[in-house]
Structure formats: C-alpha cells, structure tokens
Amino acid sequence: MTPYISAVAAMIFWSFSFVWVKIAYIAYQPLTVVLVRLIISSFLIIFFALVFKKLQKPARSDVRLFVLLSFFEPFLYFMGESFGLKYVSSTVASVIVATIPLISPIVAWYFHREKLSWLNLSGILLSVAGVSLVVLDRSLNLVASPKGVALEFLAVFSAVAYSSVLKNLAHRYNTFSIIAYQNLYGILMFLPFWLFFESDRFFSTPFHYESFRAIVLLSIFASSLAFIFFTYTVRHLGINSSNIFTNIIPVFVAILAFFILGDRLLFHQMIGIIIVISGLFIAQLKKIRRRPVQPEPEEAIEVHIQ
How many CB atoms neighbour CB 259 within 10 A? Predict the structure, then answer.
C-alpha cells in the first residue's frame, strides 16, 4: 500500500498548492511568492540530494539544456500559473492545468510523428468540452477571466515544452539533480523581474504570518515532498499507473477551495470537472491496456505539476 499512499499524498500536496497560493496573495505579489518558494524548495532539494548522495554535476554541454528547461519550467510555467491564479479560481486553474497530459500527445504527434490513437483523440475532445463547461456559463459566456484562462493555458503549453526538453536530460540525470538545477536557474531568471517590479513593495509590506506560512507550506509540501513522494510511486508502480493519480487533483482542489476559500461551483461546472477527469482516463486507457506497468528508473521520471 505504501506506493499508493505516497501517490495520494503527493496529489493532496499539489492540490493544496492551488489554495495556498491564493492565501499567499493576501499579502504578497506573484513574483515574490514564486521566488521565495523556489529558494526554500531549492535548499530542501539540494539538502536531500546531498544527504542521499544524489546530486550530479551537469556536463558543460548540458548547461544550455538546463537553462532552456528552467525557462519553460519553473519560469514560464509559474509566470502563467501564478499570475493566472490572480484572475481565476483555484478550481478553474486546476482543471486547466490538468489538461497537460492531453496536450502532450498532440505535440508528440506533430513534432515527433508519434501515433495518436482514437482513444487519445476522444479523451482530448471530451476534456476540452469539460473545460468549456467549467469556464463558461449557461449562456456560453466566459464566467472565468479570459486573461486568467489564457495565462493558465500558457502554463500548460510551457509544461509540454518542458517535457520535450526534459527527454534530452532524463536519461543522464536523476530527479533530485534535475529539480535542483532547474530551480536554481529559475531563481536567476525570476530575480531581475522581482527586483524591478516587486522588491520595493515586498520590503514595504509588513510581515504577514498567514501568507508567509502559505509560501513555506508551498515550498515544503508542493515543491519538495510531493516530488519525492511521486518519485517513489513511479519507481514502484511505473509512470503510466502513477500518472492516473494526477487526474484527481481537480476534485481535491474543488473540495479544498470550497471549505477553505469559500469557492462555489455551479452544477454545470461540477459536471465539467467530471467530464475532464473522464477524458483524462479515456486518453490513457489504450496505453495502460497495451503495455504492462513496469517500474521505471528514476532518471526517466517526468513531472509537470509544482
């Protein structure tokens, strides 16, 4: 049961991240939240990597790949997700981000000519319909901010691009090393923007315990422990079986946002969430049925949600 418990724990931590970000925004701006989160997370990941002797030194030829990796995630991904959460609810954001596994097969088909099955297409179309129900009202008008929806989809496409770059590094570096270096380069990318746009406001803002606590929780649980737990799950259940658990994140977020943030969902939005999750499962059915689940090496792990 340990791998399953570990998987559910990772999903809960990632679900809480959509709520904790909203709490952090009570006092702090998006770039501040992301930068502090990355700094704390980097310290924790590097600490674990050194303790377990997992930190690998990147080859000089791979530095540009790590920089590109960091540009897509965490930099561009967090730019989209964090600023998007200023305009849309946690639930809407989680539903959009949950479509990442659906966009990846389309990109793989277009750029790498990987086969796209009719189950993939059916799942994609079904989930698109579900997302539409979540972001539209009964009159087909956007109930969510167009700007927020666009920013969240920027995060989605950034994560897909991140996966493409990651494939060039995953077979040579372990998860601890990849996350550590992408976070460090990400800090360097965010720092100039933070200094220019938010540093003055940060230093003039009185310390806010609840918001800062949310940032610390994001760093420890969403950006560090969730990755470690999910890595453990993948190594014991395989990537295909493990990725299924990510489909329940919108459900957890909807429940948490209702009780913690007071978010409300209309009936058709609840149906939309169910449709999105159904589409995600359908899109993966053929892959799971045709290939038996085998534990995969740590170097092959791909994770998009932070």
Answer: 10
CA angle 114, 115, 120 (to 5 degrees): 115
Q: Is 233 helix (H, G, I), strand (E, B) or coil?
A: helix
> What whole-number distance in Å separates Cα of residue 254 and Cα of residue 158?
24
What is the C-alpha to C-alpha distance for residues 223 and 10, in angstroms, rounded to an integer?
10
Mapping DSSP onto H, E and C, the string for 260-301 reads HHCCCCCHHHHHHHHHHHHHHHHHHHHHHHHCCCCCCCHHHC
d(CA 193, CA 189): 8
Per the document, the length of the chain is 306
pLDDT tens per residue across span 116-175:
677 777 877 787 788 777 777 665 566 788 999 999 999 999 988 887 888 788 788 988
Task: Give me Rg for the CA atoms of the chain.
Answer: 19
Q: Residue 129 and residue 17: Cα distance in Å, rounded?
A: 25
